[in-house]
Amino acid sequence: MLSLVLPKGSLEKATMQLFDAADLTVQRASDRDYRASIDDPRIDRVRVLRPQEIPTYLEQGLFDLGITGRDWITETDSDVVSLGELKYSKATSNPVRVIMAVPDGAPWQRVSDLPEGVRISTEFPAMTKRFLEQHGVKATVVPSYGATEAKVPDIVDAIVDLTETGSSLRKNGLRILDTLLTSYTELVANREAYEDTEKRAAMEDIALLLQGVIRARGNVLLKLNVAQADLKNVLDIMPSMSSPTVTSLAGGESNAVESVVAKRGVNTLIPALKAAGAHDILEIPIAKIVD
Ligand SMILES: Nc1ncnc2c1ncn2[C@@H]1O[C@H](COP(=O)(O)OP(=O)(O)OP(=O)(O)O)[C@@H](O)[C@H]1O
Ligand SMILES: O=P(O)(O)OC[C@H]1O[C@H](OP(=O)(O)OP(=O)(O)O)[C@H](O)[C@@H]1O
């Protein structure tokens, strides 16, 4: 049985939605309830905590399995096992980036242009210090507890912060100087728990369900019927994950075709399939895709 730790904050909503879609619904009385449960024989304890602290708790063995960002694994330099990237952030399926940014009008073009004594605010002081050292910049790193973008140019000269859509940077008149890290959300485990055969099998089951949901996102199943004479025309324009399934219908003159296709593009694909001779076209949502 596994103990699980899930992230509170930016990743919370997307994580709860992912577990729900993976048939691992996290049950809790309210979003202020940090002790939760999942009705699954492989999971006996669920806690919701800040992602900054999750890598350390996993390393210490306080939990077997958790979800956090690569940024916090790097910042805390934790020794944990990654079971893979889960491609979602707060708002999109793209990764976030830890970037160094300066005001639009600042004279610096590269990190090495930063003058000695430059003041940099960040929630990632360890990562920032390592990065500045690599670039030979002697700076004062000021710890931030949020709203980092709001501190330039009067409180500090530059920041190291997360960006996902770039909207916070734009709103605050900031320009990216360099990227320290591209960070995905990850499923991570305590090393000892991962070495336990039974626990590892349970972890891999959970990873498979979560990845299955992520893979299915943005895809739909298309099913259609087509006469033998039009089959080639339909198959010529039908995209698929590997190749479409074709089954001949009773009577032998007609075929059923099914294929997983990207949802994006279905608006032009369905009329094109119809024009190529397809009929009885169904578009069906997919909950999971497991390789
Ligand atoms: N758009 C985003 N902004 C911030 N963090 C994000 C975003 N998308 C994903 N994350 C991930 O969420 C984690 C940080 O979440 P958390 O809620 O603790 O930070 P925060 O948003 O800076 O905090 P706060 O709740 O104080 O605003 C990190 O691992 C980060 O990579
Ligand atoms: O590129 P964007 O899509 O704008 O997202 C990135 C912003 O979101 C987070 O801040 P949050 O709103 O959680 O507040 P915080 O700065 O107080 O942590 C992060 O720290 C960035 O400021």
From TrEMBL:
Task: Determine if Ribonucleoprotein is one of this entry's keywords.
Answer: no
* Activity control: Feedback inhibited by histidine.
Q: Which domain of life is it from?
A: Bacteria
Q: Which GO terms describe its molecular function?
A: ATP binding; ATP phosphoribosyltransferase activity; magnesium ion binding
A Pfam family found in this protein is HisG
UniProt keyword Cytoplasm present: yes
Return the NCBIfam families for the record. Answer: hisG, HisG_C-term
Identify this protein by name: ATP phosphoribosyltransferase
